[in-house]
Protein backbone atom coordinates (compact mmCIF):
# COMPACT_ATOMS: atom_id res chain seq x y z
CA UNK A 1 0.00 0.00 0.00
CA UNK A 2 1.35 3.41 -0.98
CA UNK A 3 2.32 5.89 1.69
CA UNK A 4 1.74 9.45 0.53
CA UNK A 5 2.87 12.91 1.56
CA UNK A 6 1.49 16.29 0.53
CA UNK A 7 4.21 18.66 -0.67
CA UNK A 8 3.48 22.37 -0.27
CA UNK A 9 6.18 24.00 -2.38
CA UNK A 10 7.37 27.60 -2.55
CA UNK A 11 4.25 28.97 -0.87
CA UNK A 12 6.33 31.49 1.01
CA UNK A 13 5.74 35.18 1.53
CA UNK A 14 8.01 36.47 -1.24
CA UNK A 15 6.55 34.06 -3.81
CA UNK A 16 2.90 34.55 -2.83
CA UNK A 17 3.37 38.32 -3.14
CA UNK A 18 4.57 37.86 -6.74
CA UNK A 19 1.71 35.51 -7.70
CA UNK A 20 -1.09 36.91 -5.53
CA UNK A 21 -3.67 37.41 -8.30
CA UNK A 22 -5.92 34.51 -7.17
CA UNK A 23 -7.52 35.35 -3.80
CA UNK A 24 -8.97 31.83 -3.59
CA UNK A 25 -5.62 30.07 -3.85
CA UNK A 26 -4.52 30.07 -0.21
CA UNK A 27 -7.97 29.03 1.14
CA UNK A 28 -8.09 26.15 -1.41
CA UNK A 29 -4.61 25.06 -0.45
CA UNK A 30 -5.55 25.26 3.22
CA UNK A 31 -8.41 22.78 2.53
CA UNK A 32 -5.95 20.34 1.00
CA UNK A 33 -3.58 20.71 3.96
CA UNK A 34 -6.39 20.24 6.47
CA UNK A 35 -7.64 17.16 4.58
CA UNK A 36 -4.14 15.65 4.53
CA UNK A 37 -3.67 16.22 8.25
CA UNK A 38 -7.12 14.81 8.98
CA UNK A 39 -6.29 11.68 6.99
CA UNK A 40 -2.90 11.24 8.65
CA UNK A 41 -1.01 12.14 5.46
CA UNK A 42 2.25 13.94 6.27
CA UNK A 43 2.51 17.53 5.06
CA UNK A 44 6.00 18.55 4.00
CA UNK A 45 6.84 22.15 3.17
CA UNK A 46 9.50 23.10 0.65
CA UNK A 47 10.96 26.61 0.45
CA UNK A 48 13.73 28.15 -1.60
CA UNK A 49 16.41 29.85 0.45
CA UNK A 50 20.06 30.83 0.38
CA UNK A 51 22.83 31.86 2.71
CA UNK A 52 23.64 35.54 3.10
CA UNK A 53 25.60 36.62 0.06
CA UNK A 54 24.18 33.81 -2.10
CA UNK A 55 27.34 31.64 -2.27
CA UNK A 56 25.24 28.80 -3.74
CA UNK A 57 24.29 30.85 -6.80
CA UNK A 58 26.45 30.93 -9.90
CA UNK A 59 26.27 34.07 -12.03
CA UNK A 60 25.78 31.67 -14.99
CA UNK A 61 22.43 30.59 -13.56
CA UNK A 62 20.01 32.88 -15.37
CA UNK A 63 17.09 32.64 -12.93
CA UNK A 64 18.87 32.50 -9.59
CA UNK A 65 21.69 34.80 -10.69
CA UNK A 66 19.08 37.52 -11.25
CA UNK A 67 17.63 36.89 -7.77
CA UNK A 68 21.09 37.15 -6.22
CA UNK A 69 21.69 40.41 -8.09
CA UNK A 70 18.38 41.83 -6.80
CA UNK A 71 19.34 40.77 -3.28
CA UNK A 72 22.08 43.35 -3.22
CA UNK A 73 19.26 45.89 -3.51
CA UNK A 74 17.52 44.45 -0.44
CA UNK A 75 15.25 41.78 -1.96
CA UNK A 76 15.61 38.09 -2.50
CA UNK A 77 15.52 34.88 -0.53
CA UNK A 78 18.30 35.30 2.03
CA UNK A 79 16.18 36.68 4.87
CA UNK A 80 13.77 34.89 7.20
CA UNK A 81 10.68 36.85 6.16
CA UNK A 82 11.11 36.05 2.45
CA UNK A 83 11.59 32.33 3.04
CA UNK A 84 8.84 32.03 5.65
CA UNK A 85 5.88 29.88 4.62
CA UNK A 86 2.83 32.10 4.16
CA UNK A 87 0.98 32.27 7.49
CA UNK A 88 -2.35 31.23 5.92
CA UNK A 89 -0.91 27.77 5.26
CA UNK A 90 1.81 27.67 7.92
CA UNK A 91 3.27 24.39 9.11
CA UNK A 92 2.37 22.94 12.47
CA UNK A 93 5.15 22.15 14.93
CA UNK A 94 6.93 19.01 13.80
CA UNK A 95 6.01 19.30 10.12
CA UNK A 96 9.21 19.32 8.09
CA UNK A 97 10.36 22.39 6.19
CA UNK A 98 12.89 21.51 3.50
CA UNK A 99 15.06 24.26 2.03
CA UNK A 100 16.07 23.84 -1.61
CA UNK A 101 18.64 25.75 -3.63
CA UNK A 102 17.18 25.46 -7.13
CA UNK A 103 13.82 25.00 -8.86
CA UNK A 104 13.13 21.32 -8.10
CA UNK A 105 12.24 20.47 -4.49
CA UNK A 106 14.98 17.83 -4.66
CA UNK A 107 17.78 20.14 -5.89
CA UNK A 108 20.19 21.08 -3.13
CA UNK A 109 17.87 19.76 -0.40
CA UNK A 110 17.48 16.69 1.78
CA UNK A 111 13.92 16.03 0.57
CA UNK A 112 14.70 12.58 -0.81
CA UNK A 113 16.24 11.59 2.52
CA UNK A 114 13.21 12.88 4.47
CA UNK A 115 10.83 10.96 2.17
CA UNK A 116 12.82 7.73 2.25
CA UNK A 117 13.20 7.85 6.05
CA UNK A 118 9.41 8.10 6.36
CA UNK A 119 8.98 5.32 3.75
CA UNK A 120 6.94 7.66 1.54
CA UNK A 121 6.58 6.42 -2.03
CA UNK A 122 3.79 8.64 -3.35
CA UNK A 123 3.68 12.43 -3.56
CA UNK A 124 0.81 14.89 -3.87
CA UNK A 125 2.18 18.08 -5.42
CA UNK A 126 1.04 21.66 -4.84
CA UNK A 127 2.86 24.95 -5.16
CA UNK A 128 3.89 28.11 -6.91
CA UNK A 129 4.69 28.08 -9.78
CA UNK A 130 3.22 25.33 -11.91
CA UNK A 131 5.89 25.94 -14.55
CA UNK A 132 8.64 26.11 -11.93
CA UNK A 133 8.80 24.02 -8.78
CA UNK A 134 5.83 21.80 -9.66
CA UNK A 135 7.11 20.89 -13.13
CA UNK A 136 10.71 20.37 -12.02
CA UNK A 137 9.75 18.37 -8.94
CA UNK A 138 7.28 16.23 -10.90
CA UNK A 139 9.93 15.33 -13.47
CA UNK A 140 12.56 14.47 -10.88
CA UNK A 141 10.10 12.58 -8.63
CA UNK A 142 8.93 10.52 -11.61
CA UNK A 143 12.55 9.64 -12.39
CA UNK A 144 12.92 8.55 -8.74
CA UNK A 145 9.88 6.26 -9.13
CA UNK A 146 7.49 8.08 -6.80
CA UNK A 147 3.78 7.73 -7.46
CA UNK A 148 2.49 11.20 -8.29
CA UNK A 149 -0.69 13.23 -7.97
CA UNK A 150 -0.91 16.92 -8.85
CA UNK A 151 -3.65 19.06 -7.34
CA UNK A 152 -4.28 21.30 -10.35
CA UNK A 153 -5.98 24.07 -8.39
CA UNK A 154 -3.38 23.69 -5.64
CA UNK A 155 -0.83 25.01 -8.14
CA UNK A 156 -0.52 28.56 -9.35
CA UNK A 157 1.34 30.11 -12.26
CA UNK A 158 1.79 33.62 -13.61
CA UNK A 159 0.56 32.43 -17.00
CA UNK A 160 -2.88 30.78 -17.03
CA UNK A 161 -2.28 29.17 -20.42
CA UNK A 162 1.01 27.61 -19.32
CA UNK A 163 -0.75 26.28 -16.20
CA UNK A 164 -3.53 24.80 -18.34
CA UNK A 165 -1.19 23.13 -20.81
CA UNK A 166 0.92 21.63 -18.03
CA UNK A 167 -1.99 20.34 -15.95
CA UNK A 168 -4.09 19.13 -18.88
CA UNK A 169 -1.48 17.87 -21.36
CA UNK A 170 1.97 17.44 -19.83
CA UNK A 171 1.51 16.32 -16.22
CA UNK A 172 -1.01 13.53 -16.96
CA UNK A 173 1.80 11.61 -18.69
CA UNK A 174 3.47 11.08 -15.31
CA UNK A 175 0.86 11.90 -12.67
CA UNK A 176 -2.80 11.77 -11.79
CA UNK A 177 -4.09 15.34 -12.05
CA UNK A 178 -7.14 16.17 -9.94
CA UNK A 179 -8.72 19.11 -8.15
CA UNK A 180 -8.43 19.68 -4.44
CA UNK A 181 -12.12 18.82 -4.01
CA UNK A 182 -11.68 15.54 -5.89
CA UNK A 183 -8.61 14.63 -3.87
CA UNK A 184 -10.07 15.55 -0.48
CA UNK A 185 -13.05 13.28 -1.17
CA UNK A 186 -10.71 10.33 -1.70
CA UNK A 187 -8.66 10.94 1.46
CA UNK A 188 -11.56 11.69 3.80
CA UNK A 189 -13.73 8.66 2.95
From TrEMBL:
Ranges for domain Isochorismatase-like come to 4-181
Which GO molecular function terms does the record list?
A: hydrolase activity
> What InterPro entries does this protein's entry cite?
Isochorismatase-like_dom (IPR000868), Isochorismatase-like_hydrls (IPR050272), Isochorismatase-like_sf (IPR036380)
Q: Does the keyword Hydrolase apply?
A: yes
Instruction: Output the superkingdom of the source species.
Output: Bacteria
Swiss-Prot/TrEMBL keywords: Hydrolase
One Pfam family in the UniProt entry? Isochorismatase
Glycoprotein: is it a keyword of this entry? Answer: no
Name the CDD domains on file: cysteine_hydrolases
Name-wise, this protein is: Cysteine hydrolase
Which organism is this entry from?
Nonomuraea cypriaca
